[in-house]
Amino acid sequence: MAKKYTSEDKMNSAIALAKAVLTTDAIYPHKYELLSVCIWKVTMRDSRYDLRYWSKGVYDLVDEHGSIKAVQKIRPLPIRHEHVNTRKSLILAMMENPDDAERILREETLACTITIAEHRLLNDDIAGFERYKQAGVRVWDTIEQEWIA
Predict the structure, then answer these.
(1) Cα separations (Å) of 33 from 2, 74, 111, 119?
(2) What sections of the chain are H helices per DSSP?
């Protein structure tokens, strides 16, 4: 029987892989690609779409259809897994300061389930939830049960 890995097991694994990649003599494009995979592993460790943060558009879809799983069954799928801080900015931060990789992956690597229409409004030149605020996209924190942006 296959072992069931916890969210923390998956986080620790992604951190170990990122640290290993950062210490190699691999060429820049390979490091970049592998660190991008580590970021995906962090943000999808529990689910691709049933994330802590939902945009207002996703919140409304869940309210209408009853659950995130019901929303996922809509064709074409109207939602996206979106990185709050861009993967590019996270990768560059880890490459500039490899000793900070664990903190970056634990604290800054966040994802939000967002509609396609809302996703088009986001500016990648702005960091974090400020991107959503500037775009007029409200964000629901499913754990704290409050609007944060």
Answers:
(1) 28, 31, 18, 23
(2) 7-22, 28-43, 56-65, 68-72, 87-96, 101-103, 116-119, 130-135
89: three-class secondary structure by DSSP: helix
How far lies 23's CA from each of 20, 65, 74, in Å?
5, 46, 43
Please count the residues of the chain: 149
pLDDT in tens, 133-144: 999 999 999 999
CA-based torsion, 149, 114, 142, 85: positive or negative: negative
Whole-number Å distance between alpha carbons of 51 and 141: 9
Tens digit of pLDDT for each residue in 31-75? 999 999 999 999 999 999 999 999 999 999 999 999 999 998 888
What are the pLDDT digits (tens) for 103-118? 999 999 999 999 999 9
Q: Can you read off the two tokens belonging to residue 130?
A: 């400020």
- pTM for the model stands at 0.92
**Which of the 8 DSSP states describes residue 23?**
T
User: Are the beta carbons of 28 and 115 closer than 8 angstroms?
Assistant: no
